[in-house]
Amino acid sequence: MAKAKVIVFANQKGGVGKSTAVMNLAAVLRERGKTVLAIDLDPQHTLTDFWGVTEPQYTTYDLLMSDGEWRAYETDINGYTNGPIIPAGDQLAAAELELMAGSPSWGLALTTALEPIKPHYDYILIDSLPSLTVLAVNAIWAADGIIVPCQTEIAAFNGMQLLFTTMSRTIGKIRKRYQMLDQVIAIQPTRFDGRIAHHKNVLEGLRQLYGDKVSAPVKATIKYSDGSASHLPITIYAPEERAAWDDLADRLERWADNGEK
Ligand SMILES: Nc1ncnc2c1ncn2[C@@H]1O[C@H](COP(=O)(O)OP(=O)(O)OP(=O)(O)O)[C@@H](O)[C@H]1O
Ligand SMILES: [Mg+2]
User: Fold this and answer.
1) How many structural domains does the chain have?
2) How many other CB atoms sit within 10 Å of the CB of residue 187?
3) What was the pLDDT predicted at 2?
4) What CATH number has the domain bearing residue 121?
5) Which ligand is nearest the CA of 228, by number?
6) What's the CA gap between 141 and 10, in Å, rounded?
């Protein structure tokens, strides 16, 4: 039976394209015949909105706080089926405090909750939130691999480096010699505009520092906002933009095939 690889999309900086990456990579992997579960671990529930799930009965709050049956949702909108997803709701913010108050092993709640789900999918893609919080630590802890979308601007670059050092320190207190960068499958440059010198400089800086971990840049275009507002991945909404997503999927599959768990 398949045992899902758990992939977390993380960057401490907001608005860099984490949720966009989960939606589009899930679509490409599903095209390739893979079974993919998306999980929205952000109380802003952007990914859930991209999917078009409204007022779900079961959310990631339930996933974290109860050990009962789990549920995933699919949506069928504009002729496209998005799914499955475990959506987020407003109450997810409360999970942070409840986890901290409820258990000394607060960092492991997601890892534990995913165990019964893993046999059902090839990949579980987790959309994390733009902060270093209890939920973010839970996500990184549960990850087999991490994908870091990074806008080609210096603030996103700095946010990413802060994420690496803070997570390495936090998780390193428990897992000896933990280095978050070792778990990074790809750093995906996002919202890249080749006409802007600053973007080119940051892309160059990323490549110098992280070499082969840097995947094909995602072009800055309004098609992403328009596509996700229509609940459609870029492969359907604007297939001419798909090369960056095929590259990211290739990298993920190579990593998975090498058994790097
Ligand atoms: N390549 C791109 N070009 C232009 N706009 C983009 C691109 N990628 C994403 N966007 C848009 O930028 C906004 C932020 O993207 P997204 O929600 O994916 O970022 P995020 O990192 O998940 O944000 P947050 O940190 O708030 O969770 C959205 O409106 C999205 O449609
Ligand atoms: Mg997001």
Assistant:
1) 1
2) 23
3) 64
4) 3.40.50.300
5) 1
6) 12
